[in-house]
Amino acid sequence: MKQTYCINELAQDGFGIRLEFASGDLEDVLAICSANADVILSRFYAARGLMLIEGMHGVFKHPRALVELSRLFGSEVENYHQTLTSPRFFHDSEEEILILSNEPPCNHPPPPRSHDDGLKVQFPHQVNWHSDQSYRRPPPDITLLLAVRTPPPDQGQTLVADCTSACAALKPETRERLRHLNGIHAPSWVGRSREAVEKGEPILDLLPHQLPQRHPIVRRHPVSGEESLFVCEEKQMDFVDGPVVELETGLDGEGARLIRELLAHSTQEKFVYSHQWQVGDLLITDNRNLLHCATWYDADSYSRLMWRTTVLGNPGHEYAGEKKSWIPEDGSKIMAGMDHA
Ligand SMILES: [Fe+2]
Questions:
Q1: Cys-Cys link to 174, which of 166, 170, 306, 323 (CB 3.0-4.6 A)?
Q2: Is the Cβ–Cβ distance between 8 and 17 less than 8 Å?
Q3: How many angstroms separate the alpha carbon of residue 144 from the centre of ligand 1?
């Protein structure tokens, strides 16, 4: 039988795969993925949850295909209309597709420039390392990110850190200590990030479904069974009541020092894959065991437009039976006071 697709390694040490197809036809790609889902998913998880598919330009005219492809990775694709998101940030016809762009109506500013010349990947030279929506319980499993318009390849890259390998590289006694700790994650716009606390910004009053959420610092992946580190950028952790439960709070407390140490450890060059975007690239990342960030780009000269879906439904045993923390139960407005979401 004719070979319809192949899977190759993407980065060093078996981190990531590249999925390639003999046909460039979008319908063929979807059919092949569906027919071979078991094999593709097992290779994806064996490669620690990172996958690249190039040449997905066909999705631009058929955005529903991105949602269909997302369903391979889990039962539920987030509908951004039903959750915490303002309409200007999601696709006109597909409410499951989030729009990330410096163009209107999103107007997202570009990420800050690295503190050194050239591409430095390691925190704190590179900032904004995060796992998507970690301020929710349960957090999403998988993110699919499609490049629609890109700046030059040496700008606006996406960096991905392999926190499974980072966890395995810790001393056993350090890992054992971390297994007993929980981080407190909060959205960047509620006055609890490092920057907000430094500037003395007001801490927003939050409704119950908007409150910061706790996650184990060491998470066990529900599919691979491997442990990984789960801490986020300083924009996405709570520096008022945390960032680590039961450790000294605040900007320079024991919790903050631990988070910085773990971020620097996890984002060492040897754990990081750097993706230079081409239009039509689809990058799929597992939020349960990876961190990612975007690098600076010249937003005055270039557009960067990405379509994103997030898949949820299998966060692991720590979340068994939990209701979604971000869905209000009392009829309160989901967006109340959170216009930046
Ligand atoms: Fe992200």
A1: 170
A2: yes
A3: 10
- Across the range 200-226, mean pLDDT stands at 94
d(Cα 105, Cα 85) in Å, to the nearest integer? 13
Expressed in angstroms and rounded, the spacing between residue 291 Cα and the centre of ligand 1 is 8
Mean pLDDT, to the nearest integer, of 252-271?
A: 97
Alpha-carbon separation of residue 37 from 55, 86, 141, 215, 310 (angstroms): 19, 33, 17, 30, 18
Report CA(306)–ligand 1 centroid distance (Å). 11
Contact in structure between 197 and 251 (CB atoms under 8 Å): yes
- How many angstroms is it from 22 CA to the middle of ligand 1? 30
Strands 227-229 and 218-220: antiparallel
Q: Does the predicted TM-score (pTM) go above 0.85?
A: yes
Q: Is the pLDDT of residue 190 over 80?
A: yes
Q: Is the pLDDT of residue 332 over 80?
A: no
- State whether the Cα torsion 68-74-75-80 is positive or negative: negative
Average pLDDT, the chain: 92
- 90: tokens are 């999601």
Among candidates 179, 186, 88, 174, which has minimal Cα distance to 137?
Answer: 186
Structural domains of the chain sorted by starting position, each given as residue range(s) with its CATH number in brackets: 5-319 (3.60.130.10)
Lowest mean pLDDT among 15-24, 99-108, 130-139: 99-108
Residue 293 Cα to ligand 1 midpoint, Å, equals: 6
Question: Mean pLDDT throughout 204-218?
Answer: 93
Average pLDDT over residues 287-297: 96
Output the CA 117–ligand 1 centroid distance in Å. Answer: 23
Distance, CA 69 to ligand 1 centroid (Å)?
A: 19
Rounded to the nearest angstrom, the distance between the alpha carbon of 119 and the centre of ligand 1 is: 19
